[in-house]
Amino acid sequence: MNKKALQWLYSELPRLVAQGILTPDADARLRAHYGPVEPARPARLAVLIFGVLGALLIGAGILLVMAHNWEDLSRPVRAGLSFLPLVLAQGLVAWTLFNRPQSLAWREGTGALLFLMIGASIALIAQTYNISGDLPRFLLTWALLGLPLVYLLNAVVPALLYLWGITEWACHLRWEDGFAAGYWPLAALVLPLLAQWLRAGRYEVRPTLLLWALCISVTVAAGVTIERVLPGLWVMLYAGLFALLFLAGEFWCADAEGFWTRPLRHFGAAGVLVLAFMLTFEWPWKEIGWHYWYWDRFHHSGWRVIPDVVLGSLIPIAAIVLLGMTVRRKTPLGLLFGLTPILAILGYALASMTETYAPSAGLFDLYLLVAGLWLLVTGIRINKQGQMNVGLLAVTALIVARFFDTDLNFLLRGLIFIGLGVAFLVANLVMLRRKGANHEQA
Amino acid sequence: MNKRDLTLLGFAVVVAAQLAVPAWLLIEREWTLRDGQVYKFKTRPVDPADAFRGRYVWLGLEPGLIKVPDANQWHYDRKAFAVLGTDTNGFAIVERLEREAPAGQVAVRVHVGWPDLKKGEVHINWTGLDRFYMTENKAPAAEAAYREHSRRAKKNCHVTVRIRGTHAQIENLFIENKPIHEWLREHPGK
Question: Which domain holds residue A232?
Answer without folding.
Answer: 226-294+305-442
